[in-house]
Amino acid sequence: MDQIIVRGNGPLTGEIPIAGAKNACLTLMPATLLTDQPLTLTNAPRLSDIRTMTALLQSLGAEVASLQDGQVLALSSHALTSHRADYDIVRKMRASILVLGPMLARDGRAEVSLPGGCAIGARPVDLHLKAFEAMGADLDLRDGYVHARAPHGGLRGAVVDFPLVSVGATENALMAATLARGTTVLKNAAREPEIVDLARCLRAMGAQIEGEGTGTITVQGVYALHGATHPVVTDRIELGTYMLAPAICGGEVECLGGRIDLLSAFCEKLDEAGISVTETARGITVARRNGIRAVDVTTEPFPGFPTDLQAQFMALMCVAEGTSVLEETIFENRFMHAPELTRMGARIEVHGGHATVTGVDALRGAPVMATDLRASVSLILAGLAAEGQTTVSRVYHLDRGYEHVVRKLRGVGAHIERVKED
Ligand SMILES: CC(=O)N[C@H]1[C@@H](OP(=O)(O)OP(=O)(O)OC[C@H]2O[C@@H](n3ccc(=O)[nH]c3=O)[C@H](O)[C@@H]2O)O[C@H](CO)[C@@H](O)[C@@H]1O
Ligand SMILES: C=C(OP(=O)(O)O)C(=O)O
């Protein structure tokens, strides 16, 4: 297994290109199952999660070609040869549940392994299932699988009022609704940029959708969808992560392809912390010239502060002046990076959904372990701010969501390398 070695750094300067969004690509890829015509995705990120989704789609009979060094995905689902998403793949990646809606809508049947809990929380899929039931599906939970059947004549449009905001349930229901008979109204829908990107792609495929990016999405079902070519939206979480590198180390870095509207709540918090954030013609420039001020953060669905940037922001607060409180409201167990950061000299106390972080003058390098995707990169960011060497193990978590992390950070002057574990 590989490890990442980081040595504490001075200021960082230069440019970092931001990739297409993992979380958009993972819902755009299953959209291929809605049509027998080709779907081409450009600006795709090169990540292990994308390879996992590729394997899952192929296991269902889809063809997926990775072109131009993985940045273009050519997908085609002429006919599905299987309707079963196997546990062996689903357990690796929860986004696998996103094949359920498209398969059910197109062929009236699907069997998908229940994803089960994961490190950051229980993460049930009840809201996905309730949406399909409202659309007339018959669901049976057996042997760890959801066995789903659409009624004779296919899914029918319905009003689905989500009791809480779920990105995945909104995506799954939205895809299914495109081929349902009649009108579907998704209330309390997620408003994340990845939902807007999915709706745009589906519309390019012939779907009739209104209201994406608001809490109410209305879909008029159509008889069939057709092929399309769609560019994957910028990865706002990768963007926010790299914006934090000069914030922690000092210096000035331009994140190419970045847009403030993808991350306005996060940018406001950086501003409060004393970090300069400027939109440029090519992206976002982040600079820090003075100390870092402690600021409180509460994670919320979009447009609030993203849970997927909480761990990385905590790394910044570890070296801020003063005390900050980070409140995690989306996942019940998303502070596993805190004990690892503490090993590096951070002062953090976790009480339920709150972490109180008191800034220290300097962190010290240490061997640390990545527990999940965003935790892993928070340890790298902390390592950049620490005196001495930090060794991050279990970096397979990192590979799920960050392409070429060593190359990108070295490009702005960071001391970082990837090595094989002894
Ligand atoms: C692949 C992908 O896009 N992943 C993102 C997606 O995950 P994901 O789509 O899994 O997250 P959700 O928005 O669904 O989860 C939000 C909350 O709702 C709960 N819930 C969700 C579904 C359900 O059926 N029942 C239920 O109770 C979850 O446990 C969680 O507490 O949005 C999260 C919240 O922004 C991000 O952290 C993930 O990076
Ligand atoms: C939690 C994340 O991903 P997933 O939903 O795929 O586990 C993430 O991207 O931070």
TrEMBL record:
Pfam family, one: EPSP_synthase
Major site of localization recorded for this protein: cytoplasm
Annotated residues for binding of UDP-N-acetyl-alpha-D-glucosamine: 94, 123-127, 308, 330
Record carries keyword Cell wall biogenesis/degradation: yes
Domain Enolpyruvate transferase, residue spans: 7-409
One GO BP: regulation of cell shape
Binding of phosphoenolpyruvate, residues: 22-23
Superkingdom of this protein's organism: Bacteria
GO molecular function: UDP-N-acetylglucosamine 1-carboxyvinyltransferase activity
Keywords from the UniProt entry: Cell cycle, Cell division, Cell shape, Cell wall biogenesis/degradation, Cytoplasm, Peptidoglycan synthesis, Pyruvate, Transferase
CDD domains: UdpNAET (cd01555)
Pathway of action: Cell wall biogenesis; peptidoglycan biosynthesis
Compartment(s) of residence: Cytoplasm
EC number: 2.5.1.7
Modified residue annotations for 2-(S-cysteinyl)pyruvic acid O-phosphothioketal: 118
Active-site annotation: 118 (proton donor)
Keyword presence, Repeat: no
Any one cellular-component term (Gene Ontology): cytoplasm
Reactions catalysed according to its record: phosphoenolpyruvate + UDP-N-acetyl-alpha-D-glucosamine = UDP-N-acetyl-3-O-(1-carboxyvinyl)-alpha-D-glucosamine + phosphate
Similarity section: Belongs to the EPSP synthase family. MurA subfamily.
Job description of the protein: Cell wall formation. Adds enolpyruvyl to UDP-N-acetylglucosamine.
Protein name as catalogued: UDP-N-acetylglucosamine 1-carboxyvinyltransferase
